[in-house]
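We close this part of the discussion by returning to an individual protein. The encoding preserves chain order, so positions in sequence and tokens coincide. The sequence in question and its structure tokens are set out directly beneath this paragraph:

===
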Amino acid sequence: MKYDISKSTAPAMPNLGKGTECIKILLSQASKDMYEPLVPMFFPILGAHISGSEFQYPDLTWKEMCGQMANLVAHSGDNKGQLSTLAKAICRDFRQHDEQEEKKLLEWQKQKQTKGANKDKPERPEVAFRFPPSNTTNAAFIQNAMALESQGGLTQYFNLPEVEMADRLCGGHRQVSVLLRNVYDRDRAGALRATADGVTGNPTIRACFTISSNPDSTRKFYKQELTNGTFGRMVFSFKPRGGRNGKIPRQGKYDDAFYQQLDEYLTRLDICKGRFIIRPLNKLTDRLAQDMATLADLADDDLLFEISHRALVSAWKAGCILWVLNNQTWTKAMGELVEWLAYHDLWSKMAVFADMLKAGDIAISEVVKTGPKNMLEDLQDTFSEKQLEALRQSLGKPVGIATKKQLNVWKNRGFIEYSAQTGLYTKTEKYLNGSGLTVKG
């Protein structure tokens, strides 16, 4: 396995080679300790800059770059505030657009106050904000989505410095799951009012989110959302607690040279229009889907397999954005980064939520709060069914029929062979040398 998500340390990010220059430019403004945690957070912000484009996923559906959501999780004082500074830098063009929209709104408010009779008051202008404030209400969110849809299907981007801010945006905590799923699925989600007061409309929701939170608030916020699909739709990027080295991290200067370089890449996102099929990326995604199935079989973990589906979609969208940033050209380094993003998301989910996740009635990693473990790797090259049962018990997994099922899966995949003469199982050459096996713990 290229990335071992069962360990307590995060999978190491690959070198950022050809085709990832925009990511390196953004990281030039961040402190080195935040490089890996911040990279997954860039793609919802960058993706919000692409409108009027669709990309074909390997399942042959067409997807827009809206609907990306990522949550940065780090302890208090561990520099997660750098995300907000970088988000503002990437959205400098959005802010300029929104300033003009604000002027229209302020002018309307002045005219409204000076008019006498209601019939003489001007109608509210249709204003659309690309980078709304974090304390936007749900009604304003829907109204803004309607305006953005009428202006060509543009995307609104939100950066929430605290995860609890999503409650207000979604109209209450009970509505968080509904709205976030609608955002991810690019679904319609509006409101129908019985009176003229309020907002009535049913726009297609095009939005991207980044959220920052500490581990405790993150666990509390998503506690009821772990099995309804909301959890899998959100990309998580976890930064473990930093060491006490007494050094103040250095950030960038955000000078004109930085903005000049960044603007060139943002222009590439803005002018990207049409339908595209990125065949090298889709080939990689198909291979990663097989890897995820193999990993789930080695760990006997159904929930891991389920949440891996959307982790792949999120990583694939990041690949689409990289392709656009690189003048619609694919490189090996871009593929390596996409693969890392998928595994880093899964590792982060397990690092924060492992003891809370459940598959049926059995909690994952009840004994050890780590990610899914390749059980075959923990067994000797020749082993018995009882040895596998003992290992499963130590990991809090059921035995008996479940053990036999896992052995059958491993045999069908060609990972082990059974000897009726000895009653023992032996790892195959295919598994040991990795031939035809891309995932090996």
Observations:
- The first helix runs from residue 21 to 27.
- The longest strand covers residues 207-213.
- The CA atoms of residues 58 and 282 lie 5 Å apart.
- The two ends are 5 Å apart (CA to CA).
